[in-house]
Each structure stands twice: as C-alpha cells, then as structure tokens.
Amino acid sequence: MSKRPTYAELRAQVQKRYPTGQAPGGVTVDDIVQLKMQNTYNTHLDIAREMAGVMRADMAVYDKDHSKFTQSLGCWSGFHAQQMIKAVKRMKGTAKGTYVYLSGWMVAGLRNRFGHLPDQSMHEKTSVADLIEEIYVSLRQADEVALNDLFRELKSAREKGAPADVIETIIQRIDNFESHVVPIIADIDAGFGNEHATYLLAKELIKAGACCIQIENQVSDAKQCGHQDGKVTVPREDFIEKLRACRLAFEELGVDDGVIVARTDSLGAGLTQKVPVSQHPGDLASEYTKWLEVEEITPANPLKEGDLALQQNGRLVKPVRLANGLFKFREGTGADRVVEDCIANLTLGGADLLWIETDTPDVDVIAGLVNRVKEAVPNAKLTYNNSP
User: Fold this and answer.
1) Contact criterion met (CB below 8 Å) for 72 and 101
2) Taking CA atoms, which of 48, 130, 287, 354 is between 20 and 30 Å from 187?
3) What is the pLDDT of residue 227?
C-alpha cells in the first residue's frame, strides 16, 4: 500500500515550488496543500492497486485468526455506498474490514436499461464498471468533504491564535485521516461471453477501481440466479481459461495483488451445455463427464441418429440429452462436483477465494463442503453468500 505524504511533507514540497507562498494567479500554498490532501487518490487504477493490498492484508490476518473475517454489503448507487461507509465509520470508528459488494443480481435488477431483470445477464455489459466508477467518485467525495472540514478547523484555529499543540493535534488528525475508500468485490457474472470477452470486461472493471473480481461457472448466455433450478455449467477447462483471463487483466494493468473469487454453481446445477473432449483418463474433461447421466449402449438400446457416444470405464455409453440439447448430470452428484470444481479453480485456475452457491444459507452444508476442499488445499478461503 502506498504511503501518502504528511501535511508537513506536502507543504514543504509545495513551498519549495512557490517560495513566495503563492502560485501564479495568486493561489496560495495552503490552498494547494489542502486540495492535494483532499484528493486521496489520483486515479481509480491507484484505488484498485491499493485496495488489492488491503484485501491481501485482510486475508493474511484471517489465515492467522479465523474470527477476523470481513463483511461486504451490497450497494446499487454511489450515494448508498457513501452513506453505508459513513455509517460504518460512525458506528465502529473505522471502515476496516468492510467492503462494498456489487452483485450481478442487484445491478441487473436496479441498474438495467432493459427493466428489472435480475440475474438473467440481460443488463448492459458495462453496467458494473459504470457503477464501480460512480461508487468511487462518491467515496472520494466523502473524503473531500471530511478533510475540508478539518482544514476549515485548522484555518480557524490559526486565525484565532490557538496554541501550537492545538494546531498540531488538528494536523495529526489530517495526517491520520482514514479514507472512505474501501475494496469493491465486483461480480462479472459468467464473463458475458468467451474468455476474450471476459478479459476485456475484466479490464474495464479494474480500470474503474475493482481490486477483486468474482466470476461463476454458469454458461454465460443461459445464466440465472444461483438460488434457482435449471442452471447450466461449463466444463472446468473452459472456466479455468476465464479465471486466467481475469488474472491477465489484473497483471496487464499493474494490479499485481488483484483478487479473484471463483464461484461454483454446481450444487444446484443439474445440466451442462457441452461435453468436453477427454484426451486421457483422469484429465479435467473425464473428471467432468464422469458425473453425467448415461445409458449403456446395447442391442436393446442402440445408438440412434444424432446420438453421442462415450467410452466410460470400459463401457460404451450415451449421455442423456434433453430436447433442448442440454446434457444431464446424475442426481445427487452436486456436492462432489462442487468439491472438484473448487480444487481445480484453486490449483489450476489460480483463484484466491471460493464461492459455493447454495439455495439458502446453511453453515453446516457449507462447512462440510469446504472441509472436503481443505483436505486437498488446506489454505482454501471462502466468500459466502449470506442471503436468503
């Protein structure tokens, strides 16, 4: 995280540029110092870089003490985010450990030119990026207002001839000011297309200030609410490419500590749009297709025109395909698929955090799944959707 100059350091820098105490046009050194300090971040990429460091530090604290988790609250406008962070600071005295969460459900439902269509991916691709930009403008504005009040207090104290220790106390409050800017977890849904589309959109979110991107393994054009039935997932190798696309976007823009949340919807998803091609037993494709509902091909149940055949465990089988072309997974396999998803996302996709979507919040269910993941990846960390 970057270290901002103190009031004294910044004033010395500006005074060196303008020894007379004024810039051309009569702008005073004090005015310049105030405006520079009120501008807590120069660009939103600066925000993304610093907030990524904040998230990484919070994750390290959590690794040492699991009671030190963070909380993220949803906001659908800059004003809501500003008031939320102000309220948190007023109540707790600090905004540390509090993030803003931008849900795709919420953005599609409340920031959508096509109407209120939550979680159907029917909102504009740039809606989330636009909202990130708006929220950080509002949070930076809250910094400006709060710091302006402190500088007015400083000016008044000097005009009244207040003692040096009183003036120094005000300056310390300016130096120690805690910004309203906090990390944003930005939901990119299923990436709005293939891995290249995901990469391009991820860059827009990051340039708007996002230090953390959440992406899910549903089929982009068939995506729906995680709490609903009928969800369709993509093969693991396809999803891993999207995770890598997000990482490339972070790296390209210099947000080296960018955080990726890999969400799996497999617990409630009983369908897949695509049967991946397996090259050898045990690869990602075979581990994905082993859960398909299949019928053995026999003289009594032969292949028909247009059927797909698979060689599976020494048997020739055909996966059950619905009239719409989707393939079914076997009933009761969701939990096993979730565990395999999570392990692949962490070890092969480079994800930092997991999100396991459940139809309702259930600590026992989620604990059982995460504990199974931790048998393979002991330091696995979870982001949990605590909403009905």
Assistant:
1) yes
2) 287
3) 42
Question: For 106-134, what is the mean pLDDT?
Answer: 78
Q: Taking CA 236 as the corner, what is the angle to CA 74 and CA 353, rounded to the nearest 5 degrees?
A: 35
pLDDT (0 to 100) of residue 117: 66
Same domain, residue pair 28 and 51: no
- The verdict on whether 225 is a catalytic residue reads yes
DSSP bridge pairs for 233: 218, 272
- The first and second tokens of residue 141, run together, are 């504005």
What confidence tier does 2 reach under pLDDT thresholds 50, 70, 90?
low
CB contact set of 127 (below 8 Å; sequence gap of 6+): 107, 108, 111, 112
At 387, give phi and psi (nearest 5°): -130, 150
Rounded alpha-carbon distances, angstroms, from residue 22 to 33, 34, 138, 147, 242 = 11, 14, 31, 22, 53
Full residue range of the structural domain in which residue 15 is found: 9-33
Model confidence, pTM: 0.92
Which is the catalytic residue, given 211, 225, 246, 342? 225
- State whether 208 and 272 are in the same domain: yes
Q: Please tell me the distance from the alpha carbon of residue 289 to that of residue 274, in angstroms, as a whole number.
A: 10
State whether 19 and 123 are in the same domain: no
For residue 207, give the CATH number of its domain: 3.20.20.60
Strands 269-272 and 327-328: antiparallel
Residues 29 and 97 in one domain: no
Residues 166 and 20 in one domain: no
Give the H/E segment covering residue 319.
strand 315-319
